[in-house]
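Budget justification aside, the reviewers requested a transparent look at the raw inputs and outputs of the sequence design task funded under Objective 1. We therefore reproduce one unedited record. The lines immediately below are the C-alpha cells for a 503-residue chain.
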C-alpha cells in the first residue's frame, strides 16, 4: 500500500500555456534552507576577506622587509622585558611595577633609531624630573600638616601642569622635548595625587623609575644592535633619490613637448611615471623635517658623525621644491591645449633639448655627490655648460621674430597693392604673437629653472663643505705613478676654467 507521504513527494504542479508548453512550479525553500544559504555566503565572504588580508600583508612584507624586522624586534624586546615579571628573583626586586617596563617598550619603541632615542631620552628625563619634583612637593606637604597638605598638592599640580603645558607651545621645546613634557605632566600628576593616599611613595617612585630605565635601555640596545634603521641614512637616501627624480622629470617634460609623435605606446608608460617624479619632491617636506629632527638624536653611524649637518639637507630639499614648482608649471604648459605651431617649435627645439640635457647632467651629478659623500670635480664644468646653453636659447629666442614672418606671409592672404609704395599690406602681427605665447612661456620657464638649479648646486656645495666631503681625486692613490697623468690633470684644469669664463 502506498503511503501518503510518498504520494505527496511524487506530486508536482504544472502550468499549461495555450501554445502547448508547460512549466513546473518548484516549491519555495523553508526558513532553515534560506538561513543556511545566507550563512554559507557570509562564511565565504569572510574567508575571502581573510585571504585578501593575508595576501596584502605578504606583499607588504616582501616590498618593505624593514617593517617585518621592526615587528620582530618589538616582539623580542617584549619577551626579554617579560622575564622580569616571570622570574621570581627579578620580580621580587621590582615588585608588581615590572609591568611598567612592558608598557614602556610598547610606547617608546619606534621603527628607526632616531625616533626610539628621542622617546626614550624624553621619557627618562621627564619621569625623573617629575618624580623628583613630586616627591619634594609631597615631603613639603606632609610637613605642613593635614590642613594645608591637600591645598599644597592641588596648587602644585595646577601650577606645574599649567606651566608645562604652556611650554609645549615654545618652538624649541616643541621640537626637541614635546614628548618629555607630556610625560612630565602625566608623571607629576600621578605621583602627587596618588602620594596623598598611598604609603611608601619614595619606594614606589624608585621602582617605577627603575622599570622605565630597564625598558628604555633594552629598546635602545636592540634598536641599535639588531638591523638598525637610521633616520639620517633614510634622509640621505631620500634627498639624492629626489634629485634623480627631478632630473628625469625635467628632461622628460621637454622631450614630450618637442616630440613629433604624441601617441604614447604601452611600453612607454613608465616614462610618463618618471615625468611625474617631481610630485615626490613636492610632497616630502614633512618627511624631511621629521627625519632631520630625529637624526640629530642619533650617534655617529656609517659615513655620518654625531655633528653631521642634517639641517642643511632641509635647505637642499627646499631648493629642490622651488625647482619642482617650476617643473609643475612646465608640465602644465606641455599638456596645455593651446600649443605653438610646429615651425616655431622646430626653431627652438635643439636649444631647449640641449638645455634640458644640461639640467639632467647637473642634477644627476649633484645626486652622485650626495650619494657618495664626495665633492664632484666636474660640477663647475657642467654648470658652465648649462649657462652656455641658456645663452644659446636666449640668442635663438631673439632670432624668432625674423624667422616667423616667412611662414606667416606664406599663409596669409595678400591685400590690394599700394600704388605709392608698391608693397603688399599683410595681416597684423597680433595673431603671430598669440601663437608664440605658449612657446615663450615654456622658454621663460626653462630659463627660470636654470636659476633654480644653480640654487640647488649652491646648497649641495654648502652641505659638502659643512660635512667635509672629500674630493673625488683624493680616492685615487696611484694618481702620480705615471708621467702622462699630470698633463691630463692640466687639461682637466683648463676645461674646468672654461665654463667659469662663460658665466
Amino acid at each position: 500500500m502506498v503511503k501518503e507521504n510518498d504520494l505527496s513527494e511524487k506530486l508536482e504542479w504544472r502550468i499549461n500555456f495555450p501554445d502547448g508548453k508547460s512549466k513546473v512550479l518548484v516549491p519555495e525553500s523553508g526558513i532553515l534552507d534560506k538561513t543556511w544559504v545566507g550563512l554559507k555566503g557570509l562564511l565565504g565572504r569572510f574567508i575571502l576577506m581573510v585571504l585578501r588580508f593575508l595576501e596584502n600583508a605578504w606583499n607588504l612584507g616582501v616590498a618593505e622587509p624593514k617593517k617585518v624586522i621592526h615587528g620582530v624586534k618589538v616582539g623580542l624586546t617584549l619577551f626579554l622585558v617579560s622575564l622580569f615579571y616571570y622570574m621570581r628573583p627579578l620580580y621580587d626586586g621590582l615588585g608588581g611595577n615590572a609591568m611598567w617596563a612592558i608598557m614602556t617598550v610598547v610606547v617608546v619603541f619606534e621603527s628607526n633609531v632616531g625616533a626610539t632615542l628621542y622617546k626614550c631620552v624624553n621619557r627618562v628625563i621627564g619621569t625623573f624630573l617629575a618624580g623628583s619634583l613630586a616627591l619634594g612637593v609631597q615631603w613639603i606637604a606632609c610637613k605642613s600638616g593635614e590642613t594645608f597638605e591637600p591645598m599644597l598638592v592641588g596648587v602644585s599640580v595646577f601650577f606645574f601642569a599649567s606651566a608645562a603645558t604652556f611650554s609645549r607651545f615654545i618652538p624649541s621645546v616643541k621640537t626637541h622635548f614635546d614628548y618629555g613634557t607630556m610625560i612630565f605632566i602625566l608623571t607629576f600628576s600621578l605621583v602627587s595625587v596618588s602620594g596623598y593616599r598611598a604609603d611608601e611613595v619614595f619606594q614606589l617612585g624608585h621602582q617605577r623609575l627603575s622599570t622605565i630605565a630597564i625598558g628604555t635601555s633594552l629598546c635602545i640596545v636592540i634598536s641599535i644592535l639588531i638591523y638598525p634603521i637610521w633616520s639620517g641614512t633614510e634622509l640621505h637616501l631620500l634627498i639624492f633619490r629626489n634629485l634623480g627624480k627631478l632630473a628625469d622629470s625635467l628632461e622628460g617634460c621637454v622631450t614630450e613637448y618637442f616630440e613629433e609623435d604624441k601617441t604614447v605606446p604601452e611600453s612607454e608608460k613608465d616614462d610618463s611615471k618618471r615625468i611625474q617624479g617631481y610630485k615626490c619632491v613636492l610632497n616630502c617636506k614633512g618627511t624631511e623635517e621629521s627625519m632631520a629632527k630625529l637624526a640629530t638624536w642619533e650617534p655617529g653611524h656609517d659615513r655620518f658623525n654625531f655633528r653631521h649637518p642634517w639641517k642643511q639637507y632641509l635647505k637642499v630639499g627646499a631648493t629642490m621644491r622651488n625647482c619642482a614648482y617650476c617643473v609643475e608649471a612646465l608640465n602644465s604648459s606641455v599638456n596645455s591645449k593651446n600649443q605653438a605651431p610646429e615651425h616655431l617649435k622646430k626653431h627652438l627645439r635643439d636649444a631647449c633639448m640641449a638645455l634640458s640635457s644640461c639640467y639632467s647632467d647637473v642634477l644627476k651629478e649633484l645626486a652622485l655627490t650626495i650619494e657618495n659623500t664626495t665633492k664632484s670635480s666636474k660640477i663647475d664644468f657642467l654648470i658652465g655648460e648649462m649657462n652656455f646653453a641658456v645663452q644659446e636659447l636666449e640668442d635663438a629666442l631673439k632670432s624668432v621674430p625674423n624667422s616667423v614672418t616667412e611662414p606667416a606671409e606664406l599663409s596669409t592672404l595678400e591685400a590690394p597693392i599700394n600704388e605709392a609704395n608698391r608693397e603688399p599690406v599683410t595681416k597684423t602681427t597680433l595673431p603671430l604673437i598669440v601663437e608664440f605665447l605658449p612657446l615663450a612661456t615654456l622658454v621663460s620657464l626653462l630659463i627660470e629653472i636654470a636659476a633654480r638649479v644653480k640654487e640647488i648646486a649652491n646648497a649641495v656645495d654648502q652641505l659638502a663643505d659643512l660635512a667635509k666631503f672629500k674630493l673625488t681625486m683624493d680616492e685615487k692613490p696611484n694618481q702620480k705613478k705615471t708621467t702622462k697623468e699630470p698633463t691630463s690633470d692640466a687639461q682637466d684644469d683648463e676645461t674646468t676654467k672654461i665654463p667659469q669664463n662663460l658665466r
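Residues 277 and 333 are 17 Å apart (CA to CA). The two ends are 116 Å apart (CA to CA). Computational costs for records of this kind are itemized in the attached budget.
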